[in-house]
Amino acid sequence: QVQLAESGGGLVQAGGSLRLSCAASGIIFSITDMGWYRQAPGKQRELVATITSGRRITYADSVKGRVTISRDNAKNTVYLQMNSLKPEDTAVYYCNAARLIAGTKYNYWGQGTQVTVSS
């Protein structure tokens, strides 16, 4: 199993910044992609950003230019730097890690960290 521990959420005013961190522990070999998703009240969980083990990055259109994802493989940690935050960024942010084993992808999720952006 893989355990994911998120930190860094909180309350911030519009235009502010937050940095989320997610540390993976447990059976961490074969982790390929890591990333962040978010879920606002009444909405489906959506992708924010992902980064592969080879550091190929994908961003949601809604956060491009405001968010930077990075990864420290030595620490098994993924980060999400969020700038110019907007009230619509308010959501629970979930860390995700994927393991590829014998051609099958297994997804793991953190407990989530609340991000609230006030206007």
In short:
The protein has 119 residues and is an all-beta fold.
For this entry, give a set of tags:
single chain; 119 residues; mainly beta; 7-stranded mixed β-sheet; 4-stranded antiparallel β-sheet
The largest sheet, given as strand count, sense and whether it forms a barrel, is: 7 strands, mixed
Overall geometry comes to elongated
Structure classification: mainly beta
Poorly predicted parts: none
**SSE succession:** EEEEEEEEEEE
The radius of gyration over CA amounts to 14 Å
What does this structure look like?
The chain has 119 residues and is an all-beta fold. It is 0% helix and 61% strand. The protein has strands spanning 2-7, 10-13, 18-26, 31-39, 46-51, 57-59, 67-72, 77-82, 91-101, 104-109, 113-118. The chain is elongated, with a radius of gyration of 14 Å. The mean pLDDT is 95.
Helices, strands, pairings?
Blueprint: E1 2-7, E2 10-13, E3 18-26, E4 31-39, E5 46-51, E6 57-59, E7 67-72, E8 77-82, E9 91-101, E10 104-109, E11 113-118
Parallel strand pairs: 2-11
Antiparallel strand pairs: 1-3, 3-8, 4-5, 4-9, 5-6, 7-8, 9-10, 9-11
